[in-house]
Amino acid sequence: MQLTRDEEAILAGEKGEGCRKAMELLVALGDIYGAKRLIPIASAHLSGVSYKTIAEGGIEFLEEMARDARVCVPTTLNPAGMDRRRWEEMGIRPRFADRQRHIIDCYERLGVTTDCSCTPYLGTNVPKRGQTLAWAESSALSFANSVIGARTNREGGPGALAAAVVGRTPEYGLHLDENRAPGVIVEVEVEDVDYSLLGQAVGVLVGNRVPYFRGIRPTVDQLKTLAAAMAASGSVALFHVEGVTPEAAGASLAGLEKVTVGRAELEEARERVTTGKDPELVAFGCPHLSVAEIQQLARLLKGRKPRGDAEVWFCTSRHTLAQCPREAAELERFGKLVCDTCMVVTPIEERFKCTATNSGKACSYLATLCSQKVVYRDTPGMVELIS
Amino acid sequence: MILRGRGISKGIGAGEVLLSEAPVSFLGGVSPSDGVLADQPGRSVKGRVFAFPRGKGSTVGSYVMMEMRRAGTLPAAIINASAEPIVATGAVMSGVPMVDRVDLSLLRAGDRCVVDGAAGTVELPDVRSVEVVSCFLRHGEDLLVLKRSDKVGSFQGHWAAVSGFIEDGETPDVTARKEVREELSLEDPELVTAGAAVSVREGATIWTIHPFLFRARDREVQLDWEHTEYRWVLPSQLAEMRTVPGLERVYRSLLS
């Protein structure tokens, strides 16, 4: 990779050890991916927050970075391993809470905005079309690429932090026009499609190719669900929806393979992800609930009575919660409004064995990261489970 | 002997080589508390130069390497055939020198080894480097192979191409023409192509072989003391013959 004189100086340690390490990481990643240069970024979003995943090793890395490095672009943070206020109610142990707070403190010292959420694009970090980003969190970066038309690769936590500290990222992959073109046409032949199951099915089908959807008209919240599910079941970081997403217009479709998704494929996905029967935890909000989704749940639950003994969580961001306190209070009758975290990154495996979700993304990660049996329901089905 | 690769993570690390034939995930594949490999019980990467084809698995693997640093179980250095982001990230984070684009077939478990992550080099102080030429003569479809006599210094009785050491100050091209002239009494043979050098490990020696392909005008050749016999064979027959190490690979390098 070709570095400018300024970049060489950073690599030589002239801006401190944290910056030097960040630059070394960007150069290593750039070389591996065949990038020719670094390009400036408008914002960053970081994963690697939960104590459950990064543990003491991660803390040591963050402590070292926080010693003398600071982010130089707007940077937001993924969910942590607990609600910072209600962690005791979640059954989190004091030692875990202590270490988790320390991680968030390190990020704060680095200059990162610590509204811990996987949906920064809903308010705290909103990209513009065409901007270059370095985002981790597979669901958020796919939303930023696909729905907004910004440009980011699928960053890992340390790589995204390095980019935030240097303000640059290696130019390869989805930063280049040629890699943003559709790679496969997905024809959806279902009216009123379930976007979690669609995402589960298509992710497995297309792997890391760029799907171009026909036959669907998703809302913003449905796009968020779809992006998250495809990033989890496959590794889709960019997709297009005909007549909906910004880069679908004018995309070249000549010679592309076409796959069809109908009821059978969705049922197959449902069967594949369903591994449990009696949920001990019913968790909404993967990705974090939006204002509209909280309002919808409040409407669906209005006049109903709580039922069953499963624990119920509604996961969202503090930023979102602050915008709909009335509806949130309505949901509190049925379960906990949980912020800063979600069912995937908090250690639910210490308390529960079976979890119900309406999220295609959570279906994948509850099984792999949380050793859970999974019950999948659509949103009305979830409401039936708890009321 | 110094092998040249590509620097991924800076620093210099020295130790004995520990080889893994399979790709490695630090999450699940290496125990952070003692550095022991899950698929090689009793073998720890701690303080070793850990050589494996490439990383794989969860991105959490990068953090596992930080955990190993805390426990003091990190490898002294890492060598990969081709680096991927998870191990590369972990190596930079935890400060383990790392080099990739190294031919792992040139390493042996237990080799003493010094990895320089900034220069991108792997030094094997106990391994000798020998540079030779290997000259194939082609007539029609056939290649000329020669049986080495018992008077030569190495690989007696093995089938080989025309070969010889590159002496100080000689370019491979000059050596190649000289050897063909001396061993076959052929003046000014027609050079068809020269291939990329191929390195082969044999005991404590790495042979770096520079391949050349010449066209023979006829099938009669005159041997000197280095060979006892010659044959014209099809390239596909090389694999079945008792040849010097890597002869078929050397020939293939002429085709690419």
By CATH, the architecture of the largest domain in chain B is named: Alpha-Beta Complex
CATH superfamily of the largest domain in chain A: Aconitase, domain 3
Helix content of chain A: 40-55%
- Number of H- or I-type helical stretches of chain B: 5
**Total tally of structural domains of chain B:** 2
Helix content of chain B: 10-25%
Strand-and-helix sequence of chain A, N→C? HHEEHEHEHHEEHEHEEHEHEHHEEHEH
- The strand order across the widest sheet of chain A is 12-11-10-13-14
Spans of chain A of at least 5 consecutive residues whose pLDDT stays below 50 are: none
Rg of chain B, Cα atoms, Å: 22 Å
How many beta-strand runs of chain B?
Answer: 18
Radius of gyration of chain A: 21 Å
CATH level 1 class label of the largest domain in chain A: Alpha Beta
Q: What's the total count of β strands of chain A?
A: 14
How far apart the termini of chain B lie comes to: 26 Å
**Main beta sheet strand tally, sense and closure of chain B:** 8 strands, mixed
CATH architecture of the largest domain in chain A: 2-Layer Sandwich
- Give me the side-by-side strand order of the main sheet of chain B: 1-10-9-3-6-7-8-2
Largest sheet of chain A: 5 strands, parallel
Oligomer: heterodimer
